[in-house]
Amino acid sequence: MTALQPSVGEDRAEAPARLEIRVRTDAGHVAAFRRASGEGADAGAGHVPLTYPFCWLTLPEVRPALERMIGAAVLPVHEAQSFDYDGALALDADYRVVFVFKHTQDPERLTVNAEIATPQGETAARFETVLRLVPAGGAAGGR
Questions:
Q1: Which of 72, 75, 66, 141 is nearest to 111 (CA)?
Q2: Peptide linkage before 107 cis (omega within 30 of 0)
Q3: What does the pLDDT read at residue 44?
Q4: In the CATH hierarchy, which fold is given to the domain comprising 15-135?
């Protein structure tokens, strides 16, 4: 399932949306992530960095949902992030990720919760990312 599904019976602007995708902890992509994060491709070889699942928010299946929930004319500012593991993610392994996007007001935020599970349905990890949505174009202040 890759369709974005708003929850039923809630105001659309505030309704959580759910997206499920399949991912893989490809060893080459994990090594590239290590290099990009300054860890080095060989440092920690054989394991998936704890923050690696964050990169799944950039996947083509996820970006449209994320952009739609953020909305136009706002700047998403990374406010908080947390990870909770039941065990280490394995290299070159398949996982199912269920994202839940929740847009809230006062102040305006987008909270993304994700649950990572094995193909057998066992929960491996969870993470949460909170984005503060700031009006773009100087609406909050001058130059």
A1: 66
A2: yes
A3: 61
A4: Thiol Ester Dehydrase; Chain A (3.10.129)
Cα separation, 48 vs 30, whole angstroms: 7
Q: What is the pTM of this model?
A: 0.81
Give me the residue spans of the domains in the chain: 15-135
| Cα 143 from Cα 139, distance rounded (Å) | 10
The structure tokens listed for 19 are 């997206």
- Ranges of residues in the chain with a pLDDT under 50 are 1-12, 142-143
pLDDT at 138: 59
Output the CA torsion sign for 121, 51, 111, 92: negative
| Type of residue numbered 122 | E
3-state secondary structure the chain: CCCCEECCCCCCCCCCEEEEEEEECCHHHHHHHHHHCCCCCCCCCCCCCCCHHHHHHHCCCCHHHHHHHHCCCEEEEEEEEEEEECCCCCCCCEEEEEEEEEEECCCCEEEEEEEEECCCCCEEEEEEEEEEEEECCCCCCCC
